[in-house]
Amino acid sequence: MLYDLSLHMGYIYDVPASGARHVMRLMPLSLTNRQRLVAGSITISPTPDEQSHFVDFFHHPTTSFMLRAPHETLDIRMQARVQVESQPIAADFSPLLADLPEEISGIWSLAPDSPHHFLGDSPRLTQAREIADYARSYATPDLTAVQIAHALCARINKDFTYDPDATTVDTTPLEAFRLKRGVCQDFTHIMILALRSLGIPAGYVSGFLRTIPPPGKERLEGADAMHAWVRIWCGETNGWIELDPTNDIPAGTDHIVVAYGRDYSDVVPVIGVLKSYGGQRAVQAVDVIPLK
Predict the structure, then answer these.
(1) Does the predicted TM-score (pTM) go above 0.70?
(2) Where do the structural domains in the chain lie, given as residue ranges?
(3) Domain named Transglutaminase-like: which ranges (predicted)?
(4) Could you say which of 2.40.30.170, 2.60.40.2250, 3.40.630.30, 3.50.50.60 is the CATH number of the domain covering 2-85+269-291?
(5) pLDDT tens-digit series, residues 95-154
(6) Which member of 82, 97, 140, 187 has the greatest number of CB atoms within 10 A?
(7) pLDDT digits over 9-51, tens only?
(8) Which CATH code is given to the segment(s) 99-266?
């Protein structure tokens, strides 16, 4: 599938802000045999006084910029064309849960995609007994890592209600778990914690979800903004798989990857500091247009 993407992120300040420094991770990745960034551009208004580009630990193209002068608004627009390849259906050669630690211990690499980075606590994710108990209730000894991942994905989709008014970006996974409501970020964090509590490496994927459904299919939830789903390491043979608990589907040609990380803190689209007082209002609009 070939897509044209557009993203608008805007911030309106009650009082003009100054001395602002921000970091952005907005451009879709090019991934071998998965997706290719054909072309892309990002515009920032007001024009930054300083701007630099680098690649972070998880190999994300990242932009840092600074605005010294007072400004009442910040406007960021991204446009990109991305080719997404369909993925072959892979047989389940993942180990049983009891055998997974041995396979993990055989991985000596500490590269960005090493499963070792995705097992323990991370900046936004600390183990919670309630979520661990929930995970154990669906992880029987006769299931493989892939089967457990699919079972938890389906269970979270069934047990939790998509409700954009129930949580905020700062809601903890345990709070969302107790509410049984939230958005893709909440469901993704809960599933990551559940998998890690079982010893299954899991991480966060930030990206886009197509907004125009195929003929005869319903529109997928979470398509009005950036989306999130889960990446799971299922042994040396199967490697990493990606599942979307918000919609209970594997990530496929509808899913466009922007960034991988341990949790949301590693993939925040725009983060920064500034001098101001009073509040601010944020707006976001996403359009994913399939071309063929």
Answers:
(1) yes
(2) 2-85+269-291, 99-266
(3) 176-247
(4) 2.60.40.2250
(5) 999 999 999 999 999 999 999 999 999 999 999 999 999 999 988 888 999 999 999 999
(6) 187
(7) 999 999 999 999 999 999 999 999 999 999 999 999 999 999 9
(8) 3.10.620.30
Joined together, the tokens standing for residue 120 give 């323990």
